[in-house]
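hey all, quick one before standup. I had two proteins in the batch that finished overnight and I want to keep them in one place so we stop losing track of which output belongs to which input. First protein below, input sequence then C-alpha cells straight from the run.
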Amino acid sequence: MLSFDIRSLTEHAVTVDDQLAVDDPVWLDGDPKPSTPLHVKGRLSSAGPGRFYWHGTIEGDVSIECSRCLGSAGSHVSDEAHLIFAEAGTEGVEDDPDVFLLDDRKPDLDLRPALREQWLLNVPGYALCREDCKGLCPTCGAELNLGPCECMSASAANG
C-alpha cells in the first residue's frame, strides 16, 4: 500500500514494503517507466504538526534507448530517498521545492507522485546496450553492430 490515512500517521509510523506497478496511472506518457514493478521500501512517520517524513529506497529496472545505436538498453535504478510532505499552509514549506504539498481536500498521503519524481531523477539519461556498441553510421544510419554498412565499404574501396 502506497497511500496512507494522515490521521493514523500522527499516531504511529508505518513500514512501507510494496511495489509500484508498471501500469499504475501515476506514470505519464513519455515517462521512462520501469520494466518491472518498482520495489518501494521504507518508513513513513510524522515529523511534527502537518509534516510527514519518508525515508526508504526505490529499486527497479528500466529499458531505455541505447545512446549510440538507438536499440534497447537496460539499466538497474536504485535510490535512497528522503521525502518531506507537508500540508499546504504549513510555515516555511510553500516555496520549498524539496517539500511535497499535501492536498488538504484529501485525508490521505499518497507516496506515488513523489516516488515517480524520485524515479525520474534517477533513471540514467545515457545508456548503452553494451560497452562496445558501435552505434549508427553517420552517413546512412545503418547499425554498425550488425557489421559494416554499404557506404563505409564503398568509401574504403575508393579511399
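OK second protein, same deal, sequence then C-alpha cells:
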Amino acid sequence: MRSPQPLPPVTVSEHDGVRYLHLGSVWVQGAMRLRKPQHVELDYVQRMLAALLWLDPDALAGARAVQLGLGAGALTRFTAQQLGMATTAVEINPEVIAANQQWFRLPARAELVCGDAADWLAQAAPARVRLLHVDLYDEEAAAPVLDSEGFYAACRAVLEPGGVMAVNLFGRHASFAASVARIAAAFGAGQVWSLRPTREGNTVVVAGREVAVPAREVLAARAATIEARWGPLGLPARKWLRMVRPYTPESPTA
C-alpha cells in the first residue's frame, strides 16, 4: 500500500465538443466526445485497446475486464458496453469517480472500486481477468505511481491463462526502459510487446500470461474484424498491427 498522499482536485473542461478530465493541472487525464460518448477520443487510450489483437473478440462477452485507474472512463465504457465484459474499475480518488458518474456517462453495470490499485490486486482472486488495463498517473503525469516488478507480478497473477495486460508508459521518459524491463521480468520477455509512441510520447506496452501468439494471417484477420466493428469508435486495428514490436532486452522500444 502506498503512503497516504493528498489527492489532487478534479476539474472538468470542455473544448470543441470534447469534455476533459484534469487532476489539479492542465494535463489531460481523460476525454469524452459529447455527441459520441462511446468514441475512444485519445490516441494513447485507443492504443490501450490494441491488447484486443491478442484476444478472440468473439469470446470476450461475459469475461472479466479490469481498469486500474479510471481516467474519464473511456476504457470502462468500451469494455462494458461495446465488448459486453464484466467490468471493474479501480480508482483511488473518490472525486474522479464522482466526476465520472456526473460528467462522463459511466455504464451502470460497471463495478467501481474506490481504493488503491495495489491493495485491490493483493486481495483479488487469481487468474480471473481476461483483459487488464493499467493507467496510473498522478497530477504531474511524469511516471507511473505503481511501477515495481512486484506490482507487475501481481498484475500477472490476476490474469487468467491467455489473458493480457496493457500499460500506458511515457516512452520519452527516462523511466521507460526500466519500466519495460520490470514488466518483462514479471511476465517473461517473450510475453511483452510495445507499440510505437504517440505524438505526445505515450507508449503502450502489452504483456500476456501464457499467450500463444496467433499466426500473422490470423492477426491480420482479427485486426480487420476489430476495425470493421469498432473502427468508427476510434480503433484503427490494422494500423496497430504495423506498430507492434516484440520486447528485446537490448532495445526495449524496438
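Flagging for whoever picks this up: The chain has one domain: 42-246. The chain has a mean pLDDT of 92.
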